Fold this protein.
Amino acid sequence: MHLEPVDRVDSISEKDFTQNYYLPKKPVVIRNLSNGWPAMNKWNWNYFKELVGDQEVGIYNNIKSNSTTPINTADEYTTFGKYIDMISSGPAEWRIFLFNIFDHAPKLTEDFTWPEHLMKGFVKKFPMLFVGGAGSITHMHFDIDMSHIMHTQFAGRKRVLLFPYSEQHKLYRKPWEVLSLVDFSYYHDPSKSKIDHSSYPAVSKAKGYEVVLEHGETLFMPASYFHHMEYIEAGFAMSLRALQASLPGKLHGAWNLFGMRNVDTLLKKTAPEWWFNYKKEKIFHHAEKYI
């Protein structure tokens, strides 16, 4: 893989953000975007337990999905409070995915400011909290709605690997899905990496970015970017989503949500083996031209 570090800035003007990152669809870390947010001082494990400790949540392990796994299906369920106790006591490879904590504790929305001075189109009904124990992994994928993301890290550190959508075939993206067939776990450590280069040789040609996201930093992930995340320490982050400005971008996201996902789920249930083999053939056909 050919990886560049993600640019880091302390702050940025709307003009510079638009010209250098938003329009070119290039990621950037903004160190001080969250400065002044009450959330930076108020939000911690104990505060969340007080607010939503009894709320049931789906939790996810590090096992990659297979040909029959429905999208976004939790591996287990527990309460938010018990989950926090579990990841706080030591390494625990479990994460919470797309938890809308703000539905259960609306007052939390008063603790941050939507960065509308940088871009418009934020979907204010769906700020999302992402929580992971040390060692937990979010496998390589792109967000199905194709939104731009402002991802702010509040606790712990997280390693992030990013690729633009144009690299999808080098990543062996599964047709009709948002996931890569390749396991990128521990990609940064040659002694532990699970990338099988002999089976997936095009991966070595992929061009992307990497960054370790620190406490208080905000990562701008442009629409449709593939991302793989590894929690170095137990931590949590919030994603603010903004729809693409263009009509084709909005329609692509809508198709993924209401068309592509439903077709894939139906065929996984009715013809899983045939569907998996069909997609696998397409995956390697597309990757072949990059080898």
Remarks:
- The domain at 2-288 is CATH 2.60.120.650 (Jelly Rolls).
- The first helix runs from residue 14 to 22.
- The first strand starts at residue 2 and ends at 5.
- The chain has one domain: 2-288.
